[in-house]
Design goal:
The complex is a heterodimer.
Chain A (H helix, E strand, L loop, with lengths): L1 H13 L6 H13 L3 E4 L6 H12 L3 E5 L6 H4 L1 E3 L1 H13 L14 E3 L1 H6 L6 E5 L6 H13 L1 E4 L3 E4 L5 E6 L7 H5 L2 E4 L5 H11 L5 H14 L10 H13 L9 H6 L8 H6 L2 H11 L1
Parallel strand pairs in A: 1-8, 1-9, 2-5, 5-8
Antiparallel strand pairs in A: 3-4, 6-7
Chain B lengths: L1 H18 L6 H10 L8 H12 L3 H15 L12 H5 L10 H11 L6 H9 L8 H13 L23 H7 L22 E6 L8 H14 L4 E5 L3 E3 L1 H4 L4 H12 L8 H11 L1 H4 L5 E5 L8 H14 L2 E6 L2 H4 L6 H5 L6 E4 L3 H14 L1
Parallel strand pairs in B: 1-2, 1-4, 4-5, 5-6
Antiparallel strand pairs in B: 2-3
The chains are: A alpha/beta, B alpha/beta.
Chain lengths: ~290, ~375
């Protein structure tokens, strides 16, 4: 088991994702126990990326369901191909034999992501992204799938999974998920990375970045996260900023305070935070990290 | 034999987590036993990480798990500290009334903490929160208070009810129903009007006089705000300020820190009428709807003129559906001894409820459900 965790960890690293022991343990448990994994954390910490990398590691399909308020079974699970059904009926009306095909058979069923995920012969990775954005009625549709990997369709009966997908759910915790959903999943909280980890992420993802600059970027962003911001910058924002600064040929933050101010849109996503991190504040923060 | 001992210890740990409000069922126990077969020193970190993933359900449990694991498996290195009298020691609430154990025992008796086992559990939920000194129990009650609001959410349902009459056509179901008619929409199905969670506006008194009960009431208000998307919250002491975003914070510690640092929590007198007037002037028109319930959480000790509260509540009641007042002092002093300003404003207050204990808050949720 421990060797498997190490192996998965190395595979994540090869795909430029710095997974720690805790996360790789959760991923291995998900596979061995055939239970979904719920990843919670703030926006931009790399929850969705876990599913994408896992699909690459396993060399399998990634089936993604992006959740939103109002999402229902027709968009997420299945829908009947009504136009095809109507055409079949019309055709049958005009034929002599008058035999009508079963218009509620699999042929007339449009598979949406959740149903697709259990109809694959090779287990795919099913990513249910931002499940907290869907409303609570939708969570009820997920319960059967997450516990038994089956879907019940009234006209067809229960469809069992041909292969059990690796299910990853992500949540930004904008609302509390129901206990019924949580107890069906393993849980992992993805926090902002530590200094060393974020540094290795920047250096592996941003090719050609100056070592000194990367150190300064990470230290600055780590300090920025301690401020009273409405939205703290995630790893994705740090990467964007690193790419922007590298593109602008900045190699020392202390010499380019104005550039920091001009590019802070990469890190800060609302007016309040932009107003808070003004020139004076930026200089103070730079002095702190010097 | 050693394996048996290890299994017993692991089952004991699972029970320990359950006592700490971790929701662990039979399946989780099976998984834990299956994977954590050897708790030797070599596998300790792996065991801890695996158990954490299996046992935790949310961020709060995730953050607490390491400490609980260490306290159980390494009790000598991480002893459990006796945390009675913590309120007195921390000095958060002054004037606790005596420093001797005898005084505390009297207080505990006064709070009604009698009985044992299940009886004591029931008694704790009904006990006045301000007199509970065991921090473990206090934290448990606070967590439960936050979860009370869950019952306001829509029930999880797979089936939507559709109607034969309405204004919005449900196209898919109509097509399906009319397949037998060759697609002609002879029989139509309409969408049901979406049932939304109640629109609640919380006006929360965070002045010094409320400091005894506010740890419980904070969690209750936070639960409401995090459960109902349309819920707005405003806090007041000498003035009113919006706190909806603060209450929606993921981190409880951060929420308290921000409240304490920015707004001098626990300090100052109370200007209830002035604060509600401020709400009427600046926020009521944008926030309140015809079906809004205004929840005022306050003990009613107001430093403003007694008649002012009635005047501002009259204006407020014209804009909202109902005004529900939750008072942590009501059970203790009785309706006849409430503050003068509240007595004069009783006509404008639709419902006056106690809020001194978890059981009282649970009753208030039932009332909110009735009106929503």
């Amino acid at each position: 088991m421990k060797s498997k965790i190490e192996e998965i960890k190395n595979q994540f690293t090869e795909h430029a994702y710095m997974a720690d022991d805790a996360l790789t343990t959760s991923v291995v448990l998900m596979e061995n126990l055939s239970r979904p994994l719920l990843l919670e954390g703030e926006a931009g910490v790399g929850k969705t990326e876990v599913a994408k990398i896992l699909a690459k590691i396993k060399d399998t399909k990634l089936i993604r369901l992006q959740c939103y308020e109002g999402l229902d079974t027709n968009a997420a699970v299945y829908e009947w191909n009504y136009s095809k059904q109507l055409l079949s009926i019309k055709l049958a009306e005009n034929t002599i034999s008058k035999e009508i095909e079963n218009i509620f058979s699999r042929e007339y069923l449009l598979e949406r992501p959740l149903l697709q995920s259990i109809c694959e012969t090779i287990p795919p990775v099913l990513l249910i992204d931002e499940v907290d954005r869907a409303d609570e009625a939708f969570e009820a549709f997920l319960l059967e799938l997450l516990s038994d990997f089956q879907i019940s369709i009234p006209e067809l009966g229960t469809i069992q999974a041909l292969s059990k997908p690796l299910v990853i759910l992500t949540s930004n915790n904008t609302r509390d998920l129901s206990d019924a959903l949580r107890r069906r999943c393993l849980y992992h909280y993805v926090d902002f990375p530590e200094h060393e980890k974020e540094l290795s992420i920047i250096r592996s993802k941003v090719k050609g970045i100056d070592e000194k600059l990367s150190e300064q970027i990470v230290t600055f962003v780590q300090a920025l996260r301690q401020q009273e911001l409405r939205k703290r910058p995630g790893v994705a924002e740090t990467l964007d900023w690193a790419v922007a600064l590298t593109g602008l040929q900045v190699n020392d933050l202390f010499q380019h305070i104005n550039t920091i101010l001009e590019t802070r849109t990469c890190l800060l996503k609302n007016q309040e935070d932009m107003a808070l991190i003004d020139k004076q504040k930026t200089e103070t923060m730079l002095q702190g990290i010097a | 034999m050693i394996q048996q001992i290890q299994t017993q210890r692991l089952l004991g740990f699972i029970e320990y987590l359950r006592a700490e409000d971790f929701c662990l069922g039979v399946k989780e126990s099976e998984h834990a036993l299956e994977f954590i077969s050897n708790l030797s020193e070599l596998d300790q970190s792996f065991s801890k990480l695996s158990l954490r993933s299996i046992a935790c359900r949310n961020q709060d449990e995730w953050n607490r798990f390491d400490k609980l694991f260490n306290q159980y498996w390494h009790p000598k290195q991480y002893p459990i500290v006796d945390i009675r009298l913590s309120r007195k020691q921390q000095g958060k609430i002054s004037g606790f009334g005596g420093s001797s154990m005898n005084a505390l025992n009297l207080v505990n008796e006064d709070s009604g903490l009698k009985g044992s086992g299940a009886g004591k559990q029931t008694t704790i939920t009904k006990a006045d929160y301000r007199f509970i000194s065991d921090q473990h129990q206090m934290r448990k009650l606070e967590r439960l208070a936050e979860r009370l609001a869950y019952s306001l959410r829509k029930k999880l349902s797979r089936k939507k009810v559709y109607r034969k009459h309405g204004t919005t056509l449900e196209v898919r179901r109509t097509l399906r129903r009319n397949l037998t008619n060759g697609g002609m929409p002879i029989s139509r199905i309409y969408k049901r009007k979406e049932l939304n969670p109640p629109n609640i506006v919380i006006l929360h008194d965070i002045s010094h006089s409320m400091s005894w009960n506010n740890p419980l009431l904070f969690r209750f208000a936070r639960g409401l705000v995090r459960t109902c998307k349309s819920c707005e919250a405003y806090a007041f002491h000498t003035e009113l300020f919006p706190v909806t975003k603060l209450y929606r914070q993921q981190s409880l510690i951060k929420m308290r820190e921000q409240l304490e640092s920015n707004n001098h929590l626990w300090l100052g007198g109370t200007c209830i009428a002035k604060s509600i007037n401020q709400f009427n002037a600046h926020f009521a028109n944008t926030v309140l709807k015809k079906d809004s319930l205004v929840l005022i959480i306050s003990d009613g000790f107001d430093t403003d003129e007694p008649d002012m509260l009635n005047d501002v509540l009259k204006i407020l009641s014209q804009k909202a559906k109902k005004i529900i007042w939750l008072s942590p002092m009501l059970e203790r002093i009785g309706k006849e001894n409430i503050a003068e300003s509240m007595k004069r404003a009783m006509d404008s207050i639709d419902v006056l409820l106690p809020a001194h204990s978890l059981a009282a808050l649970e009753d208030s949720v039932h009332v909110i459900k009735q009106y929503s």
